[in-house]
Amino acid sequence: MKVKFWGTRGSIAAPGKDTIIYGGNTCCLEITLESGRKIIIDAGTGMRPLGEHFIAKRETVDILLLMTHIHWDHVQGFAFFEPIFNPSSKIAVDGFPAGMKGLRVIFNNKMGDGFFPVSFEDLKARIDYIGKLSRGPVTIDDTRIDAIPLNHPQGALGYRFQEGKKKLVFITDNELVTDGPAGKEMDDYVRFCKEADVLIHDAQFTPEEIDRHRGWGHSDSASTVNLALKARTQRLILFHHAPARKDADLSAVVEECRHAAMDGNHDIVIDAAKEGSEFTL
Questions:
Q1: Most buried pick, 36, 67, 184, 243, via CB within 10 A?
Q2: Would strands 157-163 and 143-149 be described as parallel, antiparallel, or unpaired?
C-alpha cells in the first residue's frame, strides 16, 4: 500500500512562501493498493495537481473516491480535476452519505447564479455513487476498509485500511474528547486505531489554542499524540494543518510532540504531513 499526500492543509487553501514545506492545498490523498487499484480520499484543492499528474502520465483514471464529508475544503478541487472532462474516466464515489451531493452542488447550486460555468450533467466522466461504506466494511482487492463516525459539525467519516498485516488509519476533521457523543469518544477512536502501522490524524490546533475552538470539530496536537500512544500506533502523521500555521511553526509543533513522546519513553515516529510526500506500508 502506497500513500501520497496531494493536499494537507485544513479549512482553506494557503499557498505562499510560508507553506512551501508542508503545503498549501487542502485535503486530498492517493492510496495505491498492491493490486494497483487507486483510492482517493477527499476532493480538496490538492485534487487539481493530482489530475494534472494523471494527465501527464497518460493514465486511464479508474478510481474510488472516498469522501470524509462535504465541507468546502474537502470538495473544492473536484471541479478542477481534469479527468472529469474525459469520457474514459471512471469515478466511483463512496464514504460519507452526502458525498455525492457535495460534489454535485459545486456545479448545480440553486442559491446563486454564476458560481461555475459547467453543470454536473456536462461532465464527461462516468461518475457513480456506490454508498456501501457508511453501512459496513467493504473489501477491495483483498484490502478491507472500515469507517467510523467522527466528532465534527454536520458529521464526517474516518477510515481504516487493512491490507494483509499492514494497517493504515486516516482520520481528519475530528475533535478528540473524553466525554463526547456516543461512539465518538476517545476510547472509540483508540479501539479503531489500535496497533495501526500508520495513523494520520487531524491536529489543526495547538494545546494553547484548543479551548478557544471547542466545538469546531478539530483536535489539538497533544490530544492527537495521546490517541496514537494509547492505540500503540507505530507512526503518527499530523494532518489538516491550520491555514495560518507557517512552516517554521508547524515544525516546532512536531518537535514538541516528539519530545512529549520521548519523555514518556514511547517508541513512536511522529511527523507532519507534507504535500507531495509519499510512503509505503
A1: 67
A2: antiparallel
Residue percentage of the chain with pLDDT more than 70:
98
Mark out the alpha helices in 170-246 (DSSP H runs).
186-193, 221-230
Average pLDDT (8-27) is: 98
| Residue 201 burial by Cβ neighbours in a 10 Å radius (0-12, 13-18, 19+) | buried
The long-range contacts involving 139-142, CB below 8 angstroms and separated by at least 24 positions, are 140/33, 140/37, 140/39, 140/64, 141/33, 141/34, 141/35, 141/37, 142/34, 142/35
Dump pLDDT digits (tens) for 210-236: 999 999 999 999 999 999 999 999 999
Give the pLDDT confidence score for residue 111 in this predicted structure: 55
Residue 77: in which H helix or E strand, if any? Answer: none
Beta strands (DSSP E) in 48-87 are 62-67
Residues 6 or more apart in contact with residue 140 via CB below 8 angstroms: 33, 37, 39, 64
pLDDT value at position 86? 97
Residues 87-115 have pLDDT tens digits of 999 999 999 999 999 999 888 876 556 67
- In SS3 terms, 13-48 reads as CCCCHHHCCCCCCECEEEEECCCCCEEEECCCCCHH
- The residues, ordered by sequence, that sit 6+ positions from 250 with a Cβ below 8 Å of its Cβ are 21, 22, 238, 241, 272
- Calculate the alpha carbon distances from 142 to 61, 62, 145, 211 in Å: 21, 18, 10, 42
Q: What topology is assigned to 2-280 in CATH? A: Metallo-beta-lactamase; Chain A (3.60.15)
Phi/psi for 160 (5° steps) reads -125, 130
